[in-house]
Amino acid sequence: MSSASQRRTSSNYYHGTLRSVRWDCQTLTYITDFAYVGSGPYVELAKDLDFDFQAGVFQNLFGVFPIEQATDMYQIWEGNFLHYWLELEVFKVSTST
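RE: above sequence
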């Protein structure tokens, strides 16, 4: 099962992906958050944050780190996600099997 979301930024949206896999119980495999980078006609969607729980790594603009070093960043990301989703209702969450 996986979920995808879109966050509104001004008049645009950018995507995030959450993947969970069901074995004996639901397991969150990874979260990837994307952001627009560049300016004008050179804007592109790029990976901003990547929490790979299965591989045990966190990746951002500064490199790849052990997932344990991303605890604070994850809590900020999660709080923002929940606020945008539940309070501001700017996410479209979908699931598939």
